[in-house]
């Protein structure tokens, strides 16, 4: 199958689509027809769901060319009429990553720093992600993580609206990294969790500083 985005032709990498598990979208690994080694993820809307994809395109365009976006998925191209987004191709999402790997405190810190670095960047541009969870964080190999899925994101009117993302970070820490063993997690993470859930008393900026200063 051929897909044309901004006058460039892309083909499926695999005959079978292996990463087709989106709710409103569908993710297909594609490569440039002219340069097969240049791979991307093509996200396309399912029927009747163009609205969220268009919202995602609008938000991702705000990030383009801005310094500090290294932990945010990059938009390489799009077709708003068809509802196509061309994105960096990840290996897997954080949900699957955590199912496959046993990780220690240090690794939790390394991953969390990247997520919060991404969050700091979008909050600085007055964007609320709105749906932060393990399946919306992607792993690119070599300990590299990025935030994706801006379908439910919005431009905030008040800084207070950022609280929602921070609270979700709290749940991510508790449910995905430590499950119900929060009591047994290191004091540093338990303290951080208390600052995030139920009502965040810190900003992404402050969480970032707390994380980088943790010593394991
Ligand atoms: N760029 C990508 N590279 C590889 N896999 C991806 C990529 N984007 C999304 N996925 C996978 O597809 C799933 C659904 O994509 P997502 O953007 O979260 O759409 P939805 O809004 O439908 O949840 C993700 O949870 C992840 O497993
Ligand atoms: Mg998602």
Automatic annotation (TrEMBL):
Species whose genome carries this gene: Panagrolaimus superbus
Stretch forming the signal peptide: none
Lineage: Eukaryota, Metazoa, Ecdysozoa, Nematoda, Chromadorea
An example molecular function term from Gene Ontology annotations: protein serine/threonine kinase activity
InterPro entries hit by this protein: Kinase-like_dom_sf, Prot_kinase_dom, Ser/Thr_kinase_AS
GO cellular component, one term: cytoplasm
Domain Protein kinase: 13-216
Highest taxon above the source species: Eukaryota
GO terms (BP aspect): mitotic DNA damage checkpoint signaling
PANTHER family reported in the protein's UniProt record: OVARIAN-SPECIFIC SERINE/THREONINE-PROTEIN KINASE LOK-RELATED, SERINE_THREONINE-PROTEIN KINASE CHK2
Name of protein: Protein kinase domain-containing protein
């Amino acid at each position: 199958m051929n897909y044309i985005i901004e006058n460039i032709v892309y083909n499926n990498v695999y005959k079978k689509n292996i990463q087709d598990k989106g709710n409103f979208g569908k993710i297909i690994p594609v490569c440039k027809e002219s340069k097969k080694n240049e791979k991307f993820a093509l996200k396309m809307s399912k029927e009747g769901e163009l609205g969220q994809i268009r919202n995602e395109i609008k938000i991702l365009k705000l990030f383009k060319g801005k310094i500090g976006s290294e932990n945010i998925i990059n938009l390489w191209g799009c077709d708003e009429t068809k509802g196509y987004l061309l994105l960096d191709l990840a290996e897997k999402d954080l949900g699957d990553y955590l199912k496959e790997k046993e990780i220690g405190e240090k690794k939790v810190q390394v991953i969390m720093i990247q997520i919060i670095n991404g969050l700091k960047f979008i909050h600085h541009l007055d964007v609320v992600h709105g749906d932060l969870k393990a399946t919306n964080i992607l792993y690119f190999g070599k300990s590299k993580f990025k935030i994706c899925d801006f379908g439910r994101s919005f431009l905030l009117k008040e800084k207070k609206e950022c609280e929602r993302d921070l609270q979700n970070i709290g749940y991510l820490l508790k449910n995905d990294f430590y499950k119900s063993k929060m009591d047994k997690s290191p004091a540093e993470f338990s303290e951080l969790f208390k600052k995030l859930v139920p009502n965040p008393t810190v900003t992404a900026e402050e969480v970032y500083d707390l994380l980088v200063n943790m010593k394991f």
